[in-house]
Amino acid sequence: MASSIIETKNTFPAVSKELYEALDSLFPLKSPEMSWNERQIWIMVGQREVLNFLKHSRELQIENSLTGKLN
Fold first, then answer.
1. What angle do the packed helices 38-67 and 17-26 form, to 10 degrees?
2. For position 56, what pLDDT does the model report?
3. For 12-37, where are the alpha helices, taking DSSP H only?
4. Element (H, E) at 38
5. Domain count, the chain
6. Distance from first CA to last CA of the chain, Å, rounded?
7. What DSSP designation does 62 have?
8. Which domain covers residue 48, as residue numbers?
9. In this predicted structure, what is the pLDDT of residue 3?
10. How far is residue 12 from each of residues 30, 35, 36, 61, measured CA to CA in Å?
């Protein structure tokens, strides 16, 4: 599984700052509420995992553009 994520990061489309910020505002990092069931908590975890992936991909893209590395 990890190797497929690495391969995806190497071929992933550019992630704009605007896209990341819009998604981050729609799916903010927050602590679960006592009223949430387990399913709701896992959904929130999944949303944040996607944002973590996009953030990391964006950081790599910026770093690569500054160092002249191509994907």
1. 170
2. 93
3. 17-26
4. helix 38-67
5. 1
6. 20
7. H
8. 2-29+37-67
9. 54
10. 27, 37, 33, 9
